[in-house]
Specification:
Elements: H1 3-34, H2 38-44, H3 56-63, H4 65-98, H5 105-117, H6 122-132, H7 140-143, H8 151-164, H9 167-175, H10 180-191, H11 193-209, H12 212-217, H13 220-224, H14 229-248, H15 254-257, H16 261-296
Helix pairs in contact: 1-16, 3-16, 4-8, 4-11, 4-14, 5-8, 8-16, 11-16, 14-16
Transmembrane segments: 12-32, 71-95, 107-127, 139-161, 182-208, 264-283
GO biological process, one term: transmembrane transport
Membrane topology: Multi-pass membrane protein
Length: 298
């Protein structure tokens, strides 16, 4: 390695270190705030090393563990099911669009791209899902709207297929008598694993972090029983804010007024994102390869 290359490598490492630090510090500050004593947090603000520690926020969440575990189960079910269907539909459509001999390929590709720019609007969409498909207060309300198939996923997966899977493999499979479903299952899926995992991670994050579908399509006791973790934690935050505001007005007892509202918000945010932080390192190698091959080459 030449002297110039060593200087560039050092410079690049410093830049990456600063970027990583900028990414990690907010998560660290969030966690430290969640274990900070409430009055200390209010008086001194957020700190990486607070004067007083407290697990009151996590104690409050633990007292609600029955609801939280149920919401986690619903979120995991919705995330796994929705992500699987999303990747299956997106990859099947992407495979068709990647074929050179597909009739009307340009028009179909434009139709998929068009859905990235325009949609029917919130009110017509709500009326269609509730009045025509009757998904209100069902698990389908958390799976079907918005994320069931992504146009961006389709186009990125299509680009990966076109640039990373040689046409000779398709031709050899056809000579051996393989149909499109056999080619898809025996060639496309194994070779397309990096981009599928990458797009699957994007889809899973969308499902895991989604709370708008629950807000729109879940209501009443039946809907509350189907709350995802994001909807439940948002509900908990709303209740804490209500109790805190009423304690100021003297409407509730002094015991409830001692709820660690600020630190609970931090703890709730940390609890909601923890599973994704745990899973991501195991998918990182696929994520990097999928982005590089699926986007840069296109």
């Amino acid at each position: 390695m030449t002297r110039h290359n060593r200087k560039f490598q050092l410079f690049a490492n410093i830049i990456l270190l600063l970027m990583v630090t900028g990414i990690v510090l907010p998560f660290l500050l969030l966690f430290m705030s969640s274990i900070t004593e409430e009055n200390t947090l209010i008086q001194n603000g957020y700190a990486f090393w607070p004067d007083k520690f407290s697990l009151a926020a996590y104690s409050y969440i633990w007292n609600q563990r029955g609801q939280i575990f149920r919401a986690y189960g619903i979120t995991i079910l919705v995330t796994v099911t929705g992500t699987f269907i999303n990747i299956l539909l997106s990859s099947l459509l992407a495979y068709g669009l990647s074929l050179k001999e597909l009739p009307g390929k340009t028009a179909l590709t434009f139709y998929v791209f068009f859905t990235m720019l325009f949609n029917g609007g919130l009110v017509p969409t709500y009326l269609m899902y509730t009045g025509t498909f009757h998904i209100k207060n069902t698990l389908f309300a958390l799976i079907v709207p918005n994320f069931l198939m992504s146009a961006m996923n389709v186009l990125l997966i299509r680009t990966f297929y076109q640039t990373s899977i040689p046409d000779a493999l398709y031709e050899a499979a056809k000579i051996d008598g393989a149909g499109h479903m056999k080619i898809y299952s025996a060639i496309v899926i194994p070779l397309g694993k990096p981009i599928m995992v990458t797009m699957g991670l994007f889809s899973a994050l969308s499902y895991w972090n989604d709370w708008t579908n629950g807000l729109y399509y879940l209501s009443g006791d039946k809907g509350y029983a189907l709350y995802s973790i994001q909807n439940l934690l948002n509900e908990m935050i709303s209740k804490i804010e209500f109790l805190s505001s009423n304690s100021v007005a003297g409407s509730i007892s002094s015991d409830l007024s001692q709820l660690p509202s600020t630190s609970v918000r931090m703890a709730i945010a940390f609890v909601a994102m923890l599973p994704m932080l745990v899973i991501y390192p195991f998918l990182q190698k696929y994520f990097q390869k999928g982005i590089a091959l699926g986007a840069v080459k296109g």
